[in-house]
Design brief:
Mean pLDDT: 90
Distance between the termini: 61 Å
Shape: globular
Structural class: alpha/beta
Helix content: 40-55%
Number of strands: 17
Radius of gyration: 27 Å
Largest sheet: 7 strands, parallel
C-alpha cells in the first residue's frame, strides 16, 4: 500500500471491517523505507491519533515505530510499557535542567548536539518542531554566561521572558535599555533587532539566537519600515565578535551571503503533527466565502484560528460572526468583556466578540489584551481567535484548526512561504495530532524560498542605511564609492546622515535646504524645548507634509 492508501485507511479505522494490524504493518513498511522519511513519520502521527483503537500488542508495535521516526515526546505517557532498549533510547533524548519529563525528538537532539559541539547552526523547520525547547536546554547547561535572543517584536520579548522566568529563576533577564548585566550570573538579553543595535555592551556576547531569520532578507521585508536592514546589522554586530549563533525559521530551502561564517544549515521538513488541508477555491469577494466561514465556525468544536490580512478585515469578519453566527454568551468572558466595554468603548468589536467566545488579535488591540486573549484561547475558554500576522509569527497557541479567510498579507497576495507559515499553526504535539487547514480561496503556487543576507550581497541597490553602519573592511568597492559620494554633499555632515540613515539621503538634503532657505525664521520655529507653541507645531507639520516621501 502507498502513503495515500494507508492514510485513507487510518481515517476509516473504527469502522466495521477495518483491519488494524494490516494498517500498522503497512505503516511499518513505509517507516523502514529510506527514501520516504516524512511519509512514515506522518503516518505514525496519524496512527497515534487512533491509539485507543489498537490492542496491546499493536500499541507496542506502534510505539516501536514512534521510536524509529524519532518522536520520543509521544512515548512519555507509555514509558512504563516500553522495552528496555526503547527506554534507554528515550533517556538518551531526555532534556536536562528544564522540566522533569521533557524529552527531545530526533531533530531537536541533533541541533542541540551540534550547538554543544560549538557549531553555528541555521535551522529551517516548521513551527511545530518546538525550537524554543532547544534554546532553553542550551541555557540550562549554563555554558554561556552572556546570551542574546533576538526576536522580531516586543510581544515576543514578553512571551519569551515569561517562559524563561518560570524555568530559570536565577538568571538575569535583560529586556530594557535601562537594565545592565550582573556579574557572576547568566545574563540573557531578550531584544528586538533595534535594541541590539542600540546597546553598547554586547561586544563580549558568547552565544546568540536569531529567531525568524528569514526576515533578514530585504525581499522578505513586508514591513515598510527597515526591519530587514536593522536585523542584518544586529546579526553583523554580534557575529563579527566571534559569538556562536543559532538561527531559526520556517520553510527555508537555501541561505546565501553568509560565506564569511562557518555554519551547519539544516533545511528540515520534520514535523510533530500531521496536517490535512482542504482548499475551497472560493472567490475573493464572494458571498460563498462568507457562508463557508460561517459554516466552519458553527461546526468546528475545537480551537480555531481565523487568519485575516489586516485589522480592517479582521474587524469585518468579527462583525459578521457577531451578527450571523448565532453565538451564545460565554459565562467566563462576561467580566472581561464588560471591563473592555467600560474602559475602551461599549461598541468595540473586541468586547462584543469576546463576550460570545471569540477573540480578536491584531496590531490595533493593546498588547496586554492580546496576551490575555491568547491565554483564554490556550485554556479552552474561547474557541476562536480572529487574527492577523501579528499572531501567526511567533505567538504560541494550541489550535487544531486554521481557517485562512484572506489570501493576502496587508495589500498584497501572500506567497507560498506565508501560506505554509500560517498553515503550520494547525495542530499541537501531544494535544492535536492532526491539524486541519481550511483555505477558503485558491492556494498560492508552491515555490521554495532562498534567504539572502544583504551584507554578503552588496550591490548598487543595497540600502544606504545598511552601508552607513558597516565598518570599512566589510564594504565592497562599490559600496565604498557610494558612501564617499553621499558624504561629499555640502549640506549635511556624515554624522547627520548616519543618525537619520533610514530616511533617503536626497530627502534629508531636501529638508535641510528648505530649513536653510527659511533662516532665521526656521531656527526660531524649530529650536524649541519642552512643549512647542502652536506656530512651531504648524511649521514642523508643514515642513514634513510639503516634502513627499519624508515620512
Amino acid at each position: 500500500m502507498n502513503y495515500e492508501t494507508i492514510k485513507n485507511k487510518l481515517a476509516k479505522l473504527g469502522n466495521e471491517g477495518a483491519s488494524t494490524i494490516d494498517v500498522l504493518l503497512a505503516i511499518n513498511t513505509i517507516v523502514n523505507r529510506s527514501n520516504s522519511e516524512w511519509e512514515g513519520r506522518d503516518l505514525v502521527i496519524r496512527a497515534l491519533d487512533k491509539f485507543n483503537l489498537f490492542d496491546a500488542v499493536e500499541q507496542s508495535l506502534l510505539l516501536n515505530m514512534v521510536r524509529a521516526v524519532g518522536l520520543f515526546p509521544y512515548i512519555t505517557p507509555h514509558l512504563s510499557n516500553m522495552a528496555l532498549s526503547d527506554r534507554l533510547a528515550y533517556e538518551a533524548h531526555r532534556v536536562e535542567g528544564v522540566e522533569q519529563g521533557m524529552v527531545f525528538h530526533h531533530l531537536q537532539a541533533h541541533v542541540f548536539s551540534l550547538i554543544m559541539q560549538g557549531r553555528n547552526v541555521v535551522l529551517s523547520a516548521s513551527t511545530s518542531v518546538g525550537k524554543s525547547l532547544v534554546i532553553d536546554a542550551i541555557l540550562a547547561k549554563r555554558r554561556f554566561k552572556k546570551v542574546v535572543v533576538i526576536v522580531p517584536t516586543i510581544a515576543l520579548i514578553d512571551e519569551t521572558r515569561r517562559r524563561l522566568v518560570k524555568r530559570f529563576k536565577d538568571f538575569n533577564l535583560i529586556t530594557h535599555p535601562s537594565q545592565e548585566a550582573v556579574p557572576n550570573t547568566t545574563n540573557v538579553y531578550l531584544l528586538t533587532q533595534e535594541r541590539v543595535i542600540q546597546r553598547p555592551d554586547l561586544a563580549d556576547v558568547e552565544f546568540f539566537v536569531l529567531d525568524e531569520f528569514y526576515k533578514i532578507d530585504l525581499a522578505n521585508d513586508t514591513d515598510e519600515s527597515t526591519r530587514a536592514v536593522d536585523l542584518s546589522l544586529a546579526f553583523h554586530k554580534l557575529a563579527k565578535t566571534g559569538a556562536q549563533f543559532y538561527m531559526l525559521g520556517p520553510h527555508i530551502q537555501k541561505i546565501s551571503g553568509l560565506d564569511g561564517y562557518e555554519y551547519h544549515f539544516i533545511p528540515s521538513d520534520y514535523s510533530t503533527v500531521a496536517v490535512d488541508i482542504q482548499n475551497f477555491n472560493l472567490g475573493m469577494r464572494s458571498d460563498e466565502r462568507k457562508k463557508k466561514l460561517l459554516e466552519l465556525v458553527t461546526t468546528l468544536d475545537s480551537p480555531t484560528l481565523i487568519y485575516c490580512q489586516a485589522p480592517p478585515s479582521a474587524n469585518r469578519v468579527a462583525e459578521y460572526l457577531i451578527n450571523e453566527a448565532g453565538l451564545t454568551p460565554v459565562l467566563e468572558t462576561q467580566e472581561i468583556a464588560a471591563w473592555i466595554s467600560k474602559h475602551y468603548h461599549p461598541e468595540w468589536n473586541v468586547a462584543k466578540a469576546l463576550s460570545l467566545g471569540i477573540g480578536i488579535h491584531h496590531g490595533g488591540v493593546p498588547r496586554a489584551l492580546q496576551q490575555y486573549i491568547v491565554k483564554l484561547f490556550n485554556e479552552g475558554i474561547i474557541k476562536q481567535i480572529i487574527c492577523t500576522s501579528t499572531m501567526i509569527e511567533g505567538v504560541n497557541t494550541s489550535a487544531e484548526n486554521v481557517i485562512i479567510y484572506d489570501r493576502r498579507l496587508n495589500t498584497s497576495t501572500f506567497n507560498y512561504f506565508t501560506y505554509k507559515n500560517i498553515s503550520g499553526r494547525a495542530g499541537r504535539m501531544n494535544k492535536y495530532f492532526i491539524g486541519k487547514v481550511f483555505m477558503l480561496e485558491a492556494p498560492p503556487l508552491e515555490q521554495g524560498l532562498t534567504v539572502e543576507y544583504p551584507i554578503g550581497h552588496q550591490d548598487e541597490t543595497s540600502p544606504m542605511g545598511l552601508l552607513m553602519q558597516l565598518e570599512n573592511e566589510y564594504l565592497t568597492e562599490i559600496s565604498r564609492g557610494r558612501l564617499q559620494e553621499a558624504y561629499a554633499n555640502p549640506v549635511l555632515s556624515p554624522t547627520t546622515l548616519i543618525e537619520n540613515r533610514h530616511i533617503p539621503i536626497e530627502r534629508q538634503v531636501e529638508v535641510a535646504k528648505t530649513i536653510i532657505s527659511d533662516l532665521p525664521l526656521s531656527s526660531e520655529l524649530l529650536g524649541w524645548k519642552g512643549i512647542p507653541e502652536p506656530n512651531q507645531v504648524n511649521y514642523l507639520c508643514e515642513l514634513v507634509y510639503s516634502l513627499e516621501g519624508v515620512t
